[in-house]
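Whiteboard transcription, Tuesday session. T.W. wrote the structure tokens on the left side:
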């Protein structure tokens, strides 16, 4: 599936600008997910980018971001702690909620997994939670601090090296981790829970997965990442995680309405399929052959302006047909037409303002069509090309009697 990756920024609860990236399919996402990276990582770390990209290829949009003070995000990492990470996650969910759709899937790697477990209750739209090599106790990360732990316990700021980079950590970081009660949060989460863990993880032992699984209520699942390392550095392991999540998560999502049979049916040439996306009141997915488009209404009319409106597509069809018809005529007649461009507008006018219209009362639809010809063309040729514009098939359809036959079909599987 074709995907795209967009740079995003949003504000943390403390007002810092956080750098993010939204990986999404070219068409309408099946769901939105939020990804939290590991303690010494960032949004562009290979596990985060590979898993997010692989999920986007499977129709799930993923927002991954840099926690405060890391990567491209503002702030001082020395002033950040586990609670601020949780706050950043909640802010990221709010950003998705405001700009697209609240995340229904939360995914966290290592300490990021602990953060999504701690934040899940504060993101009510989330229905499925996934952790990858996550600790059962956030304080587990303190084992990585080495000699710096002594200075931190004495109330001093310390510098540590993690993942080949140096970080400054303040004493409040330790206290905040020690105060977190993750297993209690997991037990009360009431969301579908999928645990990935590498049996040979040398950083966060497999026993952490056992404790998380025992604390969680059903539905819960465990998948062993056999052969993977803590950082999920092999591409095949990241793709495996994405494949399992894409297959597992949909059954737990909030909107599990059956997909209409007309949407899933293969499209014959000349057939268009339109279906609601569930995002807002009017957003639609439009399938034309192998192409997937979007339709919506403007915000002023109650939509989310996530795609062109129905009349926009009507004008687009007329405009494309006009340009194609002129091009074919010019080629057949050997006219040196370099380029043709069409601009259209639709509005409604009073019938009495139209001298050439048969309707004399009420309002009628008017389409204003402007055509620009580029090339060494004389006035007679330009006039002839304008006449050809009216011969485009869509133009003729709009001016002829149209029969629209509507019928209901039974959804697949219904008796």
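and on the right, the sequence the group agreed on:
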């Amino acid at each position: 599936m074709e995907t795209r990756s967009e740079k995003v920024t949003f504000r943390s609860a403390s007002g810092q600008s956080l750098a993010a990236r939204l990986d999404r399919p070219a068409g309408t996402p099946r769901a939105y997910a939020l990804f939290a990276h590991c303690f010494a990582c960032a949004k562009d770390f290979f596990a985060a980018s590979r898993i997010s990209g692989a999920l986007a290829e499977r129709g799930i949009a993923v927002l991954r971001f840099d926690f405060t003070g890391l990567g491209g995000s503002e702030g001082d990492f020395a002033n950040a702690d586990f609670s601020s990470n949780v706050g950043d996650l909640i802010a990221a969910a709010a950003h998705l909620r405001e700009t697209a759709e609240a995340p229904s899937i939360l995914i966290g790697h290592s300490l990021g997994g602990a953060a999504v477990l701690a934040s899940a209750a504060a993101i009510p739209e989330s229905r499925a939670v996934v952790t990858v090599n996550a600790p059962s106790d956030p304080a587990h990360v303190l084992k990585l601090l080495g000699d710096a732990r002594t200075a931190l316990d004495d109330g001093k700021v310390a510098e540590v090296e993690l993942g080949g980079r140096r970080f400054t950590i303040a004493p409040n970081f330790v206290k905040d981790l020690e105060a977190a009660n993750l297993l209690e949060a997991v037990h009360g989460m009431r969301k579908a829970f999928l645990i990935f863990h590498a049996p040979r993880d040398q950083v966060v032992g497999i026993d952490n997965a056992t404790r998380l699984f025992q604390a969680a209520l059903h539905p819960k699942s465990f998948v062993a990442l056999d052969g993977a390392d803590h950082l999920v550095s092999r591409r095949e392991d990241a793709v495996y995680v994405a494949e399992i999540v894409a297959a597992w998560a949909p059954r737990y999502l909030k909107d599990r309405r059956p997909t209409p049979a007309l949407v899933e049916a293969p499209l014959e040439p000349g057939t268009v399929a339109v279906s609601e996306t569930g995002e807002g009141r009017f957003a639609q997915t439009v399938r034309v052959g192998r192409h997937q488009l979007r339709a919506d209404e403007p915000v002023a009319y109650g939509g989310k302006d996530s795609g062109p409106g129905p009349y926009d597509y009507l004008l687009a069809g007329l405009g494309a047909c006009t340009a194609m018809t002129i091009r074919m005529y010019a080629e057949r007649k050997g006219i040196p037409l370099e380029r043709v461009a069409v601009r259209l507008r639709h509005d409604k006018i009073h019938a009495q303002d139209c001298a050439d219209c048969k309707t004399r009362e009420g309002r009628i639809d008017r389409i204003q069509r402007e055509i620009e010809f580029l090339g060494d063309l004389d006035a007679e040729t330009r006039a002839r090309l304008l006449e050809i514009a009216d011969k485009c098939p869509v133009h003729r359809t709009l001016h002829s009697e149209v029969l629209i036959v509507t019928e209901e079909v039974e959804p697949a599987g219904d008796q």
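Someone added at the bottom: The chain has twelve helices and 15 strands.
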